[in-house]
Amino acid sequence: MGHIPLLDEFALIAGLAVLVMVLLARLKLPTVTGLLLAGALVGPYGLGLVRSVSTINLLAEVGVVMLLFTIGLEFSLERMRHIMRQVALGGVVQVGLTVLCTALIAAAFGVPVRRGVFYGFLFALSSTAIVLRALSDRRELDAPQGRFIVGTLIFQDLCVIPMVLIVPLLAANSDLSRLTTELSWALGKALAIGVVLFAVARFAAPQLLHWVTQSGSREIFLLAVLALCTGTAWLTSLLGLSLALGAFLGGMVVADTDYGHRALGDMLPLRDTFVSIFFVSLGMLFDVRVVFDMPVLVLSILVGLIVIKGFLATLAAVVMRFPARVAWLAGVGLAQFGEFGFVLGKLGVDHGVASAEDMAPLLTAGIASMFLTPVLVRVAPHVSAGERLLAPLERLIGVRGIDGLDSQGRQLSGHVVIVGFGVAGRLIGRALTDSEIAFVVLELNADTVRNARAAGEQVYYADATSEEALGHARLSAARALVLVISDAQAVQRVVDTAKRVAPHVPILVRAHYLADKPELVKIGADDVVAEEVEGAVEVLARLMRWLDIPRNRIQARVREARETTQTSERAPTLPRNSMSPQGPLADLKIDSLAI
Fold first, then answer.
1. Each residue of 412-442: pLDDT tens digit?
2. Contact 37, 218 (CB under 8 A)
């Protein structure tokens, strides 16, 4: 067998990427940073070890298509309806403010208005691939900041459609009178695609996948999913829209069927492979010579992307009435250049809106911002300075809905404060209601708060990491604080804040992993329930019941499992509270494991 083209370069890229990522992993840095750095090293502006850059970029585009398709698989039409508020309002504020501020800053330096607007388009877009990968690694996609970031990213991707149409019209010799006609035509195409996709999602796709699954072949199912992915991307590209947007819409179509989870599981290995190539290809675009030739300009653009764009995204989150901590994390998450910025940049150069020399420092700074994003996203939860700076603006806009408790809860005492009102929070609230014990819930999901308040629940929109919010909830007069939220960093901060506000109030925490317990206990949690342990215990007990094992032996195994892990029982183990001679949770009757 002869030489296979690109095989040596792929082997080189893969080997160097593994080496760099292993080294960075020892430094506890994200893997995405390693892929970008590997691309910079092997690329034409680094060691020059890879020659077929255009082919690598082609495979990278396939990676973006697959990434957006799998994102669509996680965002069905029903889920999109729930985050539409963030998509519409938050996205408009973030994109609009960024384009406006960029154009004004460019005009102050003598840049023509049309080119300033073009630069605004480039600055407004963020990196869907890098940010979603970072949020997924941190399990924050469903956290408040994750929902806002995802909604804004989706809006940005939708904005690419009119931006692609507007960029040619920004050329000096273009006819701006065509703008209205072109945009109206684009809007009509988008509306038509939406109608067609809704019909396909409801009728054609479920039946097609049902026929495919009847074959009993995993390979045929995977090919069918790939056909839907590439087919929708191809059809939207024929209409002048982006491949990535078509892939995203195709994923949403499959997500609304009964086969969405299976499709996601089958596509993940392929997606991870091609997305890794995408990150490497981005790193190849980094030209270190531009940094040496124009260091001040590159650094200024980089600071603008991270600081100014991050602040504008933070401001958009505050306008959406998110608390300071969520707004701060959202701003950091959106403060970088976007993949579609490279597409728009090339389009602008082709139509003479900007020259290649003008674009070089901007693209170099943009790639540098992508290098930094995974690190910044990881560090941001540990930095509280941004939240403190936002506190005055937060109070001015009136973000915290917990303030409304003051008028009716000044005499509230002996209650339980619950942080989080998901499945666990609702179960706890129902049990406390049945036991005639008062409780107050602090929650950061605005939709959850609105629905719970409509049902008469004492649920308030508030950030429990704030001393002010815990004060409004009268934590100092409470019998217990229960934390059932998914954000691990937020849990630690709530515990730390609660110990300062009310050191005598016992704290019960739900954690995802048993490994989190020592740190939580160290900073002040009185008891920690690890989901992985309790889930394993429940599975163990049910399996042994199915096998008709005697009840006493099941109890012994369950007790042994808990003693060898978190040494907790279903009965309360929190310390007694001086406010109640019977203890803080004496009235809570918690059933033992049903065995």
1. 788 999 998 888 889 999 999 888 888 999 8
2. no
d(CA 341, CA 418): 43
Q: Which residues of 298-312 are buried (b: 16+ CB within 10 A; e: fewer)?
A: beebbebbbebbbbb
Q: How many H-runs (helices) and E-runs (strands) does the chain carry?
A: 29, 6
pTM as predicted: 0.65
Strands (E) across 393-545 are located at 416-419, 439-443, 459-461, 480-483, 507-511, 527-530
- Is the distance from CB of 446 to CB of 457 less than 8 angstroms? no
Neighbouring residues of 94: CB distance < 8 A, sequence distance ≥ 6: 124, 152, 155, 156, 312, 313, 316, 334
Q: Give the N- to C-terminal CA distance of the chain in Å, as an integer.
A: 63
Reduce the secondary structure of 563-580 to three states and give it as a string: HCCCCCCCCCCCCCCCCC
Instruction: Say how far residue 540 (Cα) sits from the centre of its chain.
Output: 33
Report strand pairing: 507-511 vs 459-461: unpaired
Alpha-carbon distance 377 to 362, whole Å? 22
Q: How far apart are CA 268 and CA 398, in angstroms?
A: 42
Question: Is the separation of the CB atoms in 329 and 134 below 8 Å?
Answer: no
In tens, the pLDDT along 95-115 reads 999 999 999 999 998 888 888
- 172 neighbors 111 (Cβ within 8 angstroms): no
DSSP 8-state secondary structure symbol assigned to residue 479: S
